[in-house]
Amino acid sequence: MFFNSLSFAVFLPIVFVLYWFVFNKTKSTQNAVLIVASYYFYSCWDWRFLFLLVFSTFLDYYTGIRIEKAKTEVGQKFWFWLSISINLGFLGIFKYYNFFADSFSELLNGFGLQTSPLLLNVVLPVGISFYTFHGLSYVIDIYLKRIKAEYNFVDYSLFVSYFPLLVAGPIERATHLLPQVKVKRSFDYQKAKEGIYQFVWGLVKKVVIADTCATYANAIFDNYESMNSLSLLLGAVYFAFQIYGDFSGYSDMALGMSKLFGIDLLRNFNYPYFSRDIAEFWRRWHISLSSWFRDYLYIPLGGSNVGMAMKIRNTFVIFLVSGFWHGANWTFIAWGFINALYFLPLLLLKKNRSNMETVFLYWNWNSFKVVLSMISTFSLTCLAWVFFRAKSIGDAFDYIGRIFTDQRFLPQYLENERYNYEIALLTGIFVVVEWNSRTQVEPISGRYSSFKLALCIVAIVALGTYSDYKEFIYFQF
Q1: Of 107, 121, 181, 449, whose CA is between 20 and 30 Å from 274?
Q2: Active site residues
Q3: Residues 50, 42: contact at Cβ < 8 Å?
């Protein structure tokens, strides 16, 4: 069930009515409605994998209590590492086993040892990376005595399985979400209104921007060997807007619909394509994942409180792991490695925290330099996205190489596709809207909000009927 599907358009109002008007007497009944809705929502993908969600929930609930009750450090460590091992074990089997088996087989074949690896013929359970990280952060925080264990199984189950964030985040922390589900929520008209606006804007990002750009990005990447330099450049830019509109659109829809139930989720995107350097980009892109790796990997490795050599090591570790988290393919690892290389000069020059404040342009020489830095950062990001999108590292290098060697910058018609350069105008308008909205919570709030909302709905209907690309990119992670 997609957020942008007709079935979800029926599902969400039913849950809303049951939540506020039928089972609204206590916190427990509210939570029960959301849990049932969440499990039904997840079962629509593949009911056979419900056992993984249930097992993961029970595992971390039980080990969290055992860690807190353990009277010795040895006991605490036993339950802690049991939870970590099983969680990462399931994630490794379903997501990475075939990758390691294939890679090891290719390595042996390179030495003349012919092998046929035993591969698992299973699909990746949707959302497994996200709800696994929810549980991991909860157990780690208990072990480090940052929080107390949750003894109410219903409350904890909702924390893990809450359907707006279940399959593609944001990755919530127990310190933020659990206190909200442990109290009865009261209907807040203003918050619900903001939620509707944010949900609709997320739908615009998905249907109008991501799905439309995907039509052309897919056509260009799938036929890149016959494309000229201009088309390849456009393909990289289109994919950059596709993945941003797709993922940030999902996050906006998740945050918006959650406000309808009186629950606030963590912000996941903060206009990342207006970043002035790569460090700022990663403070603004997929914030919940970046902060997760910072708090649970980078800082435990020593963070920035070590020598320069160790800082460099920690930086490459966190980017490589982040790349690997996105998928079992060498292209994702290469993407992480490239971003680490981008980050390295800032780290060496101690400028990785130079651009912390929101930028305001007054169109002077300094503003011109800021715009250039934004354009250069976006260009570097687009080049890295080529590795993220390509089927192999070889294809990515070939794609980028053709950009610089073909040297034909004339309009090119794609067979069986509409003339694709009209999308440049659409993305340009989107950039202007994003820029003017960067200091607001919801881009369609403020003056004339009703008119903006109506305009967004018209755009969704108009371009939604043209686009047939529906699945969210991050469902594969």
Answers
A1: 449
A2: 326
A3: yes
d(CA 54, CA 73) in angstroms, rounded, equals: 28
CA–CA separation, 38 and 157 (whole Å): 10
CA atoms within 13 A on the CB side of 358: 9
Query: What are the angstrom distances between the C-alpha of 389 and each of 106, 221, 241, 327, 356?
Result: 23, 8, 12, 11, 29
- What's this model's pTM, rounded to 2 decimal places? 0.90
Torsion of CA 292, 297, 298, 299, to 10 degrees: 90
Any residues with CB less than 8 A from the CB of 153 and at least 6 apart, and which?
61
H or E, element range at 354? none
Closest CA to 61 of 41, 43, 88, 83: 83
- Residues of the chain with pLDDT below 50 are 416, 465-466
Q: List the one residue out of 269, 385, 295 whose CA is nearest residue 336.
A: 385
Q: pLDDT (tens digit, 9 = 90+) per residue, 261-303?
A: 999 999 999 999 999 999 999 999 999 999 999 999 999 998 8
pLDDT tens figures, 61-104? 999 999 999 989 999 999 999 999 999 998 888 888 777 777 76
Whole-angstrom distance, CA of residue 427 vs CA of residue 452:
17
Contact 87, 135 (CB under 8 A): yes
Q: How many helices (H) and strands (E) does the chain have?
A: 19, 0
